[in-house]
User: Fold this.
Amino acid sequence: IEDILHAASTAFILLLCAELLVNLTLFAISLYLIYLFMRKSRQLPKWYFILAASTALFLLIDTLLIHLMFPHIEVFTDDLIKLFVGCAISLSVWVPYLYISDRAKNTFVH
Assistant:
Protein backbone atom coordinates (compact mmCIF):
# COMPACT_ATOMS: atom_id res chain seq x y z
CA ILE A 1 0.00 0.00 0.00
CA GLU A 2 2.95 2.36 0.59
CA ASP A 3 3.92 2.04 -3.07
CA ILE A 4 0.44 3.14 -4.12
CA LEU A 5 0.52 6.13 -1.76
CA HIS A 6 4.02 7.08 -2.93
CA ALA A 7 2.99 6.84 -6.59
CA ALA A 8 -0.12 8.94 -5.90
CA SER A 9 1.84 11.59 -4.04
CA THR A 10 4.49 11.68 -6.78
CA ALA A 11 1.78 12.13 -9.41
CA PHE A 12 0.16 14.84 -7.31
CA ILE A 13 3.46 16.71 -6.91
CA LEU A 14 4.07 16.46 -10.66
CA LEU A 15 0.57 17.80 -11.30
CA LEU A 16 1.16 20.73 -8.96
CA CYS A 17 4.48 21.53 -10.66
CA ALA A 18 2.85 21.35 -14.08
CA GLU A 19 0.01 23.61 -12.91
CA LEU A 20 2.52 26.13 -11.58
CA LEU A 21 4.48 26.10 -14.82
CA VAL A 22 1.37 26.51 -16.98
CA ASN A 23 -0.02 29.28 -14.78
CA LEU A 24 3.28 31.17 -14.91
CA THR A 25 3.30 30.79 -18.70
CA LEU A 26 -0.28 32.07 -18.97
CA PHE A 27 0.65 35.00 -16.72
CA ALA A 28 3.64 35.82 -18.93
CA ILE A 29 1.40 35.72 -22.02
CA SER A 30 -1.04 38.06 -20.22
CA LEU A 31 1.76 40.53 -19.55
CA TYR A 32 2.81 40.28 -23.20
CA LEU A 33 -0.80 40.97 -24.22
CA ILE A 34 -0.79 44.15 -22.15
CA TYR A 35 2.38 45.21 -23.95
CA LEU A 36 0.83 44.43 -27.35
CA PHE A 37 -2.35 46.28 -26.42
CA MET A 38 -0.46 49.41 -25.38
CA ARG A 39 1.53 49.34 -28.61
CA LYS A 40 -1.65 48.72 -30.66
CA SER A 41 0.14 45.81 -32.25
CA ARG A 42 -1.28 43.74 -35.09
CA GLN A 43 -0.09 40.67 -33.16
CA LEU A 44 -2.67 41.16 -30.39
CA PRO A 45 -5.55 39.11 -31.90
CA LYS A 46 -3.26 36.13 -32.51
CA TRP A 47 -1.84 36.20 -28.99
CA TYR A 48 -5.27 36.75 -27.46
CA PHE A 49 -6.47 33.62 -29.26
CA ILE A 50 -3.43 31.70 -27.98
CA LEU A 51 -4.16 32.81 -24.41
CA ALA A 52 -7.90 32.08 -24.60
CA ALA A 53 -7.44 28.66 -26.21
CA SER A 54 -4.58 27.70 -23.87
CA THR A 55 -6.60 28.70 -20.83
CA ALA A 56 -9.61 26.64 -21.94
CA LEU A 57 -7.45 23.64 -22.80
CA PHE A 58 -5.52 23.84 -19.53
CA LEU A 59 -8.75 24.10 -17.55
CA LEU A 60 -10.19 21.05 -19.27
CA ILE A 61 -7.05 18.90 -18.97
CA ASP A 62 -6.40 19.92 -15.37
CA THR A 63 -9.97 19.14 -14.35
CA LEU A 64 -9.88 15.74 -16.03
CA LEU A 65 -6.55 14.85 -14.42
CA ILE A 66 -7.75 15.84 -10.97
CA HIS A 67 -10.94 13.86 -11.51
CA LEU A 68 -8.90 10.80 -12.52
CA MET A 69 -6.51 11.16 -9.58
CA PHE A 70 -9.22 11.84 -7.00
CA PRO A 71 -12.49 10.30 -8.24
CA HIS A 72 -14.16 10.76 -4.84
CA ILE A 73 -13.81 14.57 -5.01
CA GLU A 74 -16.45 16.56 -6.87
CA VAL A 75 -14.53 18.69 -9.38
CA PHE A 76 -17.36 19.75 -11.67
CA THR A 77 -18.67 22.54 -9.44
CA ASP A 78 -20.63 25.69 -10.25
CA ASP A 79 -17.42 27.72 -10.15
CA LEU A 80 -15.79 25.45 -12.70
CA ILE A 81 -18.80 25.66 -14.98
CA LYS A 82 -18.62 29.48 -14.77
CA LEU A 83 -14.96 29.32 -15.80
CA PHE A 84 -15.83 27.10 -18.78
CA VAL A 85 -18.60 29.51 -19.81
CA GLY A 86 -16.16 32.42 -19.55
CA CYS A 87 -13.67 30.61 -21.76
CA ALA A 88 -16.41 29.76 -24.27
CA ILE A 89 -17.51 33.41 -24.42
CA SER A 90 -13.95 34.56 -24.87
CA LEU A 91 -13.36 32.10 -27.71
CA SER A 92 -16.71 32.54 -29.42
CA VAL A 93 -17.17 36.32 -29.08
CA TRP A 94 -13.92 38.18 -28.45
CA VAL A 95 -11.59 36.21 -30.68
CA PRO A 96 -13.80 36.54 -33.78
CA TYR A 97 -14.40 40.21 -32.96
CA LEU A 98 -10.66 40.91 -32.88
CA TYR A 99 -10.17 39.14 -36.22
CA ILE A 100 -13.27 40.34 -38.10
CA SER A 101 -14.15 43.79 -36.76
CA ASP A 102 -13.04 46.77 -38.84
CA ARG A 103 -12.78 48.79 -35.65
CA ALA A 104 -10.31 46.30 -34.17
CA LYS A 105 -8.37 46.14 -37.44
CA ASN A 106 -8.09 49.94 -37.44
CA THR A 107 -7.01 49.99 -33.80
CA PHE A 108 -4.26 47.39 -33.89
CA VAL A 109 -2.19 48.70 -36.80
CA HIS A 110 1.46 48.58 -35.70
